[in-house]
Amino acid sequence: MKKTALIAVFSRQGRRCKYALGGVFASQKLRLTILAGTLILSSCFSPYSGNEGSITINFGGSARTLGNPSTIDAYLPYLEHQITLTGPTGTLKRTVQGGGTVRLYVAPGLWEVRVDDMCGGIPFASGTSSAVDVKMGQYNEVNIPMTPDTGTTFHIVNNSADWGLATSLLSGNNCIILTGNFNITSTATFTGATTNVTIIGNNKTITYTGNSFCFYITNMSSVTIKDVHLRSNSGSGAQLVQLNGGGVTFTMQGNSSISGNSGPGVFLNTPLDKFILDGGTISNNGGTGVVLFPGIFYMNGGTISGNSNSGVHVFSNSTFYMNGGTISGNTAIYGGGVSVDGSTISGVQANFIMSGGTISGNTATSGFGHSLYVNTAGTYTVQYGSGETIGLTSTTDGGGVTHQYVNAALTGKK
């Protein structure tokens, strides 16, 4: 069943370009906290010249109702509204987080307004207006039919019971919103090529108290966490997150963290498994921060720190791409920051490619490779000019204290 969003169209002359929230104007580049979320806007669609109109979009529950519960109010703090206007001056885009009202100034003429509601990148609902005729001195209202995305299931999780229901028999697109901290004793299994899960944490914590994995991602599924904190007090030594599915993807974003485990933080187990660290921290784990055994790891940001047995361990048939972020304060016998070891499969390399970021302040208790250790059949490449840093500048050493220990006969650097 189609629902509606309220769009008000009117003009204001003689004002500088401003946004309005609930009738109160706010200058550009101002962050506004609203009842149901945060409105983030950077500029007007065009310089205000005194002869433009404006389109006001209300994201409140009085304008729209969707699914169950009967109003959209419960979802508003967690949704991202992607607004696209198409009209006389081309296609204009803005993004609004949460609820409230946004006023957008546009040139007079016919404008089509499209709203795509997203939950952590997963479609929630969408709708497009008929042509809105923006004129000087005229106030209009139109309705946009909003159609829920039938392929997305939305879950609000406050406790372990809610979590159990939300993570049982998952398929298709799923957006899980955490509204409370809770403990779990059973592994959350994400499986299936059609399973795509985004977990929005709101800085809530899931503490795992079982004897296996907190997350087990398998069979080509995809899981993204944003502002989620994963902890463990089980003492079992197992990794908090295991990827084991020949093409699964795990992504960390925002202020997410994986910490306090007695074993590794994230463990990849097949060559096509992929871990993407866009932000957040992997810290203070009793094992390695990230293990590629084998797998592919893209570090675009975030921090890996305070872990035992290396920040990142790269085994045969694996590649670690470091594009940004920081690896610091980790310890190991060899390779406190990054250990590249291709000895697990004879003749198959382990690869480390660094084009940005920093590796420093790590400790190798043997004295071999405080920041970087490259062993048999390993290779590493540093693409200078992107701001990357690896400890000190020494590149090879047969023993003693060195920040980078590299088997020069088997590795390359440029």
Model description:
- This protein has 414 residues and is mostly beta strands.
- The protein folds into two domains: 146 residues, no CATH class; 255 residues.
- The chain is 2% helix and 50% strand.
- The longest helix is centred in the middle third of the chain and has 7 residues.
- The termini are far apart.
- The N terminus and C terminus are likely disordered.
Structural features:
single chain; 414 residues; mainly beta; 17-stranded parallel sheet; ten-stranded parallel sheet; 40 strands; 2% helix; elongated
Topology at a glance:
Blueprint: E1 3-11, E2 19-21, E3 24-26, E4 32-34, E5 37-39, E6 53-58, E7 80-87, E8 90-97, E9 101-106, E10 109-119, E11 122-128, E12 132-134, E13 140-148, E14 152-157, H1 160-166, E15 173-178, E16 182-184, E17 188-191, E18 196-208, E19 215-218, E20 222-232, E21 241-243, E22 249-253, E23 257-259, E24 266-268, E25 274-277, E26 281-283, E27 290-292, E28 296-299, E29 303-305, E30 312-314, E31 318-322, E32 326-328, E33 331-334, E34 338-340, E35 350-354, E36 358-360, E37 363-374, E38 378-382, E39 389-390, E40 402-406
Parallel strand pairs: 14-15, 15-18, 16-18, 17-19, 18-20, 19-21, 20-22, 20-23, 21-24, 22-25, 23-26, 24-27, 25-28, 26-29, 27-30, 28-31, 29-32, 30-34, 31-35, 32-36, 33-37, 34-37, 35-38, 36-39, 37-40
Antiparallel strand pairs: 1-6, 1-13, 2-3, 4-5, 6-9, 7-8, 7-10, 10-11, 10-12, 11-13
